[in-house]
Amino acid sequence: MTYVARPGDAFLIDTSNDKHLFIVVTDADRNGMHLLLSVSTIRPEARSVDRTCEIPAGAHEFIKNPSFVYYRKPEQRSAAHIAKCVDGRSFLPKEAVAPALLERIRAGILISAQTPRWAKDFYRQASPEPENR
């Protein structure tokens, strides 16, 4: 059975010697592309913490420490690529984020000064809600 990504789905993805939680924030657009955002732990020594969408420890099964959505580096991934990686086990599916958390994450896309313009444009185009346009 082929996996189909949906907004709110979460995966662990290997990135530079570590696994990061990525969240699908859009349905596939007309080209089959999704927007994904990662979550990072808030570290006292870090200067680049984006406070737009902080996530408390325990808000998701994988989040053990206070964290934030890393709007600075969104990723576009095709539905086919996501399905291939989940089916091949290089993306490890985790529990989907709660609907309220997904809405907070989505709201931050347009608010965060760190979200690249291309990602804001993609989100507006891919999002059916009129307030996101």
Evaluate the radius of gyration.
14 Å
DSSP, total strands:
6
Helix/strand class = alpha+beta
Proportion of beta-strand residues: 25-35%
Count of separate DSSP helical elements: 3
How many domains, in number, for the residues?
1
* Element-level helix/strand string: EEEEEHEHH
How much helix, percentage-wise, in residues?
Answer: 10-25%
CATH architecture field: Roll
What's the mean pLDDT score? 91
Between the first and last Cα atoms, what is the distance in angstroms? 35 Å
* Main beta-sheet annotation: 6 strands, antiparallel
CATH class: Mainly Beta
Under CATH, the topology can be stated as SH3 type barrels
Which SSEs are present, and which pair or pack?
Elements (H helix, E strand, L loop, with lengths): L9 E6 L2 E7 L8 E9 L12 E2 L11 E12 H9 L3 E4 L4 H13 L5 H10 L7
Antiparallel strand pairs: 1-2, 1-6, 2-3, 3-5, 4-5
How would you describe this structure to a colleague?
The chain has a six-stranded antiparallel β-sheet with strand order 4-5-3-2-1-6. The protein has one domain: SH3 type barrels (Roll). It is built from three helices and six strands, in the order βββββαβαα. The mean pLDDT is 91. The protein is globular, with a radius of gyration of 14 Å. It has 133 residues and is of the alpha+beta class.
